[in-house]
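Recall that a protein's primary structure is simply its ordered list of amino acids. Everything else, from secondary elements to tertiary packing, is in principle encoded there. The following example makes that idea concrete.
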Amino acid sequence: MQQTPAPLDTSQKVIRLGAIALVVAALGGAFAYVNGTLDPQRLTPDKLVDNLERAGGVHEGFRRNHAKGICVSGYFESSGQLKALSQAKVFSDPRTPLTGRFALPGPNPYAPDTSVPIRSFAVRFMQSDGQQWRTGMNSMPVFPIGTVEAFYAQQLASQPDPATGKPNPDSMKQFFASHPETAAFLAWVKNAKPSASFASETYNSVNAFYLVNAAGQRQAVRWAVVPAPGQAASEVGQGADVLQPDLAQRLAAGPLRWELRVTLAEPNDPVDDASKQWPSERRTLTAGTLVLDSSQAQSDGACRDINYDPLVLPEGIQASADPLLAARSAAYANSYVRRTGEESHAQQEPRP
């Protein structure tokens, strides 16, 4: 049996919240620029990604967030339960190929696997009609904030103190105290701990989307991929690099599976605010099963050149008005241009 982790002391909590702040920035950052609410001279996608580089260093050729990762391949088997709700082929075809990527949040591709308790899973579904569905999910069940103003305040509070190189505990405390919408996220962080396996995690869309059927009817949803029984980690892994070897070892023994569970919103549920959770009794349908059968290094694997932009959607799935979605799209595009430009430049350099 796993032992209950010891409570974190104050310094450990500050370090953890500081690391998670990078994830918050990367997921939510560009929306102030996209929506034009803040002065673009202060906050743009360029400056957001610049901040990630300053925090974690510049690692040329790597993604500016979720830099440490591994490619996976497989397919999705539809249950048919969503055919009436969405015209997307992924929900009606028996099998759809997919290319995914597991990753550790943050800009450092050499970070220890235990540095943050969050893991991410991005997937690109390739439908039979040529359309794609791309989604980026995280193991946290809710986003800390949901407005431009709150994001900007959080960014300021999480700036490292020049004297210590770490976030100022008082600034972080003041931010969370003045933003009660962060309560759900903080409740999760309190007991969250780094998992020993990508295979044992549940990954959540956090943002809401709409399923659209052939008649044009829309249903607001969020989704999660939940590991099949038997994929739970037996103990906390030791060392800085345990997640990728663990995944490769598991896949060598056979395919890994997750159920794609889609939760249906009721009319009054908040759709455009990722910091607001929906009641647990909401109806959930099992859309099908994700099956992974192989992994590859991110340096030359199938996921290397994929930008997992969450706004790449097929007919039958639409984005909500959640500003974080535009933010993520802008930040991912900025990161993609930077890293692919660096790779191109490196290929032109003469070899010694």
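The longest strand covers residues 284-297. The domain at 10-348 is CATH 2.40.180.10 (Catalase HpII,  Chain A, domain 1).
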